[in-house]
Amino acid sequence: MNTWGMLRLWWPSAISISLLNLELPLISVILSAYSLQASGDYAIALSTFMFANAFVFPLCAVVIKIRKSRETLIFAMLLAVSVFVIFNIAVSIFSSKMTPHIVFITHFFSLSLLAVAVRRYLQGCCILEGKTALMSRASLVRVLVSVIGCFTLTRFQVPVDMAAIVALVCGAYTEAALLFIMVRWQGIRLYDSTGHHYAALLAPYASAFLMSASSLMSNIIVVICLGQVAEGDTVLKYWPLTFGMICISIGSVLDIESILLKILGHQSPGKSLFTFLSVQCLVAPVLFILLCVILGSFNLFPAGSKVLYMNAYFFIAIVGVSTMWIVRGYCRSVLMTNNRLGVINFSIFTALVTPVAVFYLFHIADYGLMLSVGIFSSLIVVELLCYGAYGLIRGVSRPQWVKN
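Predicted structure:
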């Protein structure tokens, strides 16, 4: 597969993911414009939901890695229902530590877990069949439903954080239903006749889960760490918008592992793949600049926040995050292709634990908005350091210049 072929495979998926990532910045702008306090409540509910979302998000990678089968479909259904039930039980148990309002919106938000599971399974089927264009069409409709729905509900005096969550849930179910209809219309089977033992699904799911956790759980890691910082509540109120801006920069490569697994399954890394990844590094800053121009031109930044985001420091941070995200995605894909799942699992677990441990053991000063970006970036940096250490150890133990 040449570079152009890789881009054609990636493009529809990139549009789909990028469109989904427009949801958070646009809804965050609506929230922040009405109430920063509501934005803070939304940040807590969103981070909690994304924690649970990490358990169903890996279904796409499992379908691609193991191929769709009857067992894979049943596994996906059981997983979705189990996560939904356990998540709501957990929220009820810890409800005493949250306000009744946050408990209610979190319970309601959990309804979209079932829709996310359906969407991720169907997206895996689309990627396997080379019908990735279906994903972008469904995602476009979802964004329209979510953003227009949120704006409309706020006009009818619905509390802004509740309006955002109702709109997101409606958008999730709209996308899942539309994608299902298009998949069936295209004659794509939900599972093939060939089967797998359920035990064979656990290893790829565990690895894919940790990969999803490193991105989706990053939200709640940031919230936890900011809770250990004096005046961290102020930064937390801006976090939904900050996270949205980051999502724009990595939107086109958020699911890069799934695309690279497809590519590496047909060929070894070469010049074409290097060119393909280089293009991805150029796309991210362009998307970020475009977003800033749009928000700035229409005065959509919350009052006093424009200077926080439209500066050289934040731009450099965004470029750094997106580049490291691409490098991490490539490392993961190569390791998964070579069945080095243990290395991935250890590296991701270390990356998730390290920031929390640091903030609990040491006093960290409040560096404002860049502190939240730094916490988010540290998850990627620690994981890349683990991969680098593995490469060094492997290189020392098996020198490449020694001929067998």
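Summary: The chain has one domain: 3-397.
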